[in-house]
Amino acid sequence: MRKLLAVGAAVVAVGLVGACSVEEAPSPGQGGGQGQQEISFLTFETPNLTPEVWDAAIKRVTDKHPEIKVNKLVAPTQDRTAYAKQLLASNQLPDVLVAVSPAGFAESGALYEWKQEELGEFLYPRNGAIGGKVYQLPANTQTIPVVYYNKKLFQQAGVTAPPKTYAELLDVAAKLKAAGITPFVIGGGKTTHDALGPTFAGILATEVYAKNPKWMADRRQGKVKFTDPEFTRAAQKLADLSAKGYIDKGMLSQDYAATQNAFLTGKGAMYAMGNWFAAAADDPKTKPDFEIGQFFWPSDDGKQVVSAFTGGGLLVNAKAKNLEAAKKFALAYQLDKTNLDTSCKADGLIPAIKNYSPPSDVGPVYREGFDMLRQAEAANAVVPAFGFEAGDDGMLVGVPEKWDAGMADLVTGQKSPTDVAAFLDTEWEKAS
Amino acid sequence: MGEGVLTAQITRRPQTGAPGSGPPRPRRRRASAWPRLWAFLTFGAPGLLVYICFVLAPILVSVGYSLTNYNPFRPPTRYVGLRNYRLLFEDPEFLNALRVTTILTVIVVVVPNVLGLAIALLLDRRGWLYNALRSVFFVPVVLSSVVVSIIWTRMMADDGVINQALRGLGVDRPPGWLSDPDLAVYSLGVILSWQTLGFCVVVYLAGLQGVPRELIEAAAIDGAGPWQRFRKVTWPLLAPALTINTVVQLISAFKVFDHIQVITNGGPGEGTTASIAFTVLQVGFTANRQGYASAMAIVMLVIIAAASAVTLKLLQRREVDL
Questions:
Q1: Interface contact B44, partner A, CB < 8 A
Q2: Contact A254/B181, CB-based, under 8 Å?
Q3: How many contiguous H segments (helices) and E segments (strands) does chain B have?
Q4: Which of A171, A1, A25 is nearest to A87 (CA)?
């Protein structure tokens, strides 16, 4: 009996001690039979980026590179950056990650630094650099925001043309409201950054970046502050849109998917959103029964200002067991023509790849947005997208979340524009 | 093993007799303490190891982190003593989280207890209908908090069923249950109360079924009305159920995180619904200040432990034995 108990106790003790010991996460690189090199790939899902889209995209690359085996991981929420941080903290950072903000990861040495010769195919190979080094493939450009509008509702309110100045925008909003139509569709909750952020980014582009495209770099150097007049004026504009009833603050309770659906089902006339919305607008499954028009957020004097971000591509874990396979996969994934075409259709992205042109069968909303961006680039009217920048051009780690909260406070009227600006300066100091 | 314990007990017995009484007994070999120790180790060690590895060690590690400026993205890590704790009590973000957690705790302790008792009194009858109703009230308890959060987010949205019903009743501008910064925390309290109500009902029902019928009948014969019977007989005997419900609700309310994460993400705006647990995660994994977040977690642990101990002590005084 004693012997039996002793053996039992020993087994339990060994098992528990084993469970408690800190062991490096088993690297997938060791698996994969028949000479295959295994890598893990962190993705995320949205209404546009379904599991089928990811699986097909991965398969296209592994069909070309059968020596690579990919284990797909899916972030539990759209906040894949927070999830990646948790994985890093537990020593399980995946080998390849997509659209994760590199800030923090790069500085800690967790990410592979791409060499310029590896980035020869990219249009803006230095975009999103951190300390002058590129960690995230600058794969696509996103216009944030484009103001999409419901032509049917505009017509109902007697609006015949999209606004060209900010005063005209207010006039349009007033006419819509008078006709009982909600002028702007917004969202909030967990998805405030994506569902409300583009609206504020549009205002900030015309008020802040149009005057100083290096504003964020200057903020990093302490040359400007959020409490400066440019930022507070922009904040005041957002607060005024809400105070005048052009933004329905009740919509802050709806998430990103519900916000998109609200516009697509005619619950509001205008929707300031990233150009990725084109994917849903053109998709036969979600395409609305009205025609969608689009314009860029207008400035006071009517001068065109287009806020856009180039980056958002794949990143590679510097400590990946199969680093070469991870790099090969990331580049092949990013440059695969079919993947790029799919990203245009499924996610409305505009690939920032040399000599790339979208397929002829993209939808009309995407095509119009693509042409508008190219025209803006030709007119040198493109500025960074406030709140969506990355790397040296972006906010410090932890501040974007406060920017999100500040936006919501402006819309609800909980804080004044100067209070929000002061709050952001305080949070900036904490983060620096 | 059993033999050893028994031997130890048997050998102690003669020593209790008066010295010198009776004839001297043959001296027996003194039993070793090893068998008992061995028994203790064999049965106690697994549980103890689990406790040490998964409860005590993480707490100690967190205490260690809380004394540093640990930020995985900004090495090196330095020892900062009690600086994190000092900063905590001047930090508006933490103080606000404490306020939000207190509001949620008060709602989640009071509402399900009051409603749970009322419903338990109504359901304390025999019959298939009452059995079915008990199950109905318990369903939310077994639902995933994420599922509950998604359902309520849809219901409380601006165009959700609640506001549509209010509009149908003629309310022109129904409240923004989750979008109004002044209302959102109370809306969360309602959701949490709804989900935990079934637990309180079941505990009170169990308590009610332990109240002897003869006591109630005796009180009735003595002329006590329904209210007096409840107040003087039933309520005092329900004290253990109240203790359980209060302490469990208190602890779960202090720890609330998932509903906030799914429904409001701490907003609308800056921290209007951010509980301490939510703030710990934000500070630790968004701002990457994991040393500071560990200090928050330790303070939270101390608050929960102290509040639970005090509540337990106070409520146990009310308990009566039959």
A1: no
A2: no
A3: 16, 0
A4: A25
Cα angle for residues B54, B60, B63 (degrees, 5° grid): 135
Range of the domain at A319: 2-139+312-347
pLDDT tens by residue, B175-207: 999 999 999 999 999 999 999 999 999 999 999
Considering only the beta carbons, identify the residue of B45, B179, B285 that sits closest to A253. Answer: B179
**Chain A residues in contact with B264 (beta carbon < 8 A):** 189-190
For residues B108 and B253, the answer to whether their CB atoms sit within 8 Å is: yes
**Claim to verify: residue A253 and residue A270 sit in the same structural domain:** yes
Interface test with chain B among A252, A261, A425, by most B beta carbons within 10 Å: A252
What was the pLDDT predicted at A395?
Answer: 92
Counting the structural domains of chain A, the total is 2
Which chain A residues have a beta carbon less than 8 Å from that of B288?
A: 85, 104, 397-398
- Cα separation, B259 vs B261, in Å, equals 5
The reply to whether A267 and A326 lie within a common domain is: no
In a domain, A360, yes or no: no
CA-angle at A217, arms to A216 and A219, nearest 5°: 60
Residue A226 shares a structural domain with residue A275 = yes
Percent of chain A residues topping a pLDDT of 70: 92
**Chain B hits for A190, Cβ within 8 Å:** 261-262, 264-265
Q: Is A310 left (phi over 0), alpha (psi -120 to 50) or beta?
A: beta
User: Residue A132 and residue A364: Cα distance in Å, rounded?
Assistant: 38
Q: Does B74 sit within 8 Å of A253, measured CB to CB?
A: no
CB contact under 8 A, B286 and A82: yes
Whether A184 and A304 share a structural domain: yes
> Is A6 within the bounds of a domain?
yes
Identity at B207, one-letter amino acid code = G
Mind telling me how many Å the CA of B288 is from chain A's nearest CA? 8
Cα separations (Å) of A231 from A188, A408, B274?
21, 16, 26
Please give the model's pTM, rounded to 2 decimal places.
0.79
Q: Looking at the structure, do residues A58 and A107 belong to the same domain, yes or no?
A: yes
Q: Which of A9, A19, A189 sits opposite B53 (nearest CB)?
A: A19
Residue A34 binned pLDDT confidence (cut-offs 50, 70, 90): low
Q: Where are any strands of DSSP class E within chain B?
A: none
Q: How far is A339 from chain B (nearest CA, A)?
A: 31
pLDDT tens for B139-167 read: 999 999 999 999 999 999 888 999 999 99
- Give mean pLDDT, residues A242-268: 93
Q: Tell me, yes or no, whether A280 and A324 share the same domain.
A: no
List CB contacts (< 8 A) between A6 and chain B. 42
**DSSP annotation string for A38-59:** EEEEEE---SSS-HHHHHHHHH
Of B61, B44, B47, B41, the closest CA to residue A16 belongs to: B47
Residue A49 confidence (pLDDT): 81
- CATH number of the CATH domain containing A118: 3.40.190.10
Measured between CA atoms, how close is A89 to chain B, in angstroms?
7
Residues A420 and A387 in one domain: yes
Q: Is B74 on the interface with A (CB under 8 A)?
A: yes
Residue with tokens 């993400």: B265
From the centroid of its chain, how far is CA A97? 14
pLDDT at res. B3: 40
Show residues of chain A in contact with B45, CB under 8 Å: 9, 12-13
Looking at the structure, do residues A260 and A378 belong to the same domain, yes or no? yes
CA–CA gap between residue B315 and residue A335 (Å, rounded): 67
Whether the per-residue pLDDT at B21 is higher than 80: the answer is no
Domain membership flag for residue A353 = no
Separation in Å, CA A372 to CA A91, A220, B233: 44, 31, 78
Q: Torsion angle of alpha carbons B30, B31, B37, B42, nearest 10°? A: 160
Q: Is A158 on the interface with B (CB under 8 A)?
A: no
Which residue of chain B comes nearest to A401, CA vs CA?
B286
Is A242 within a domain? yes
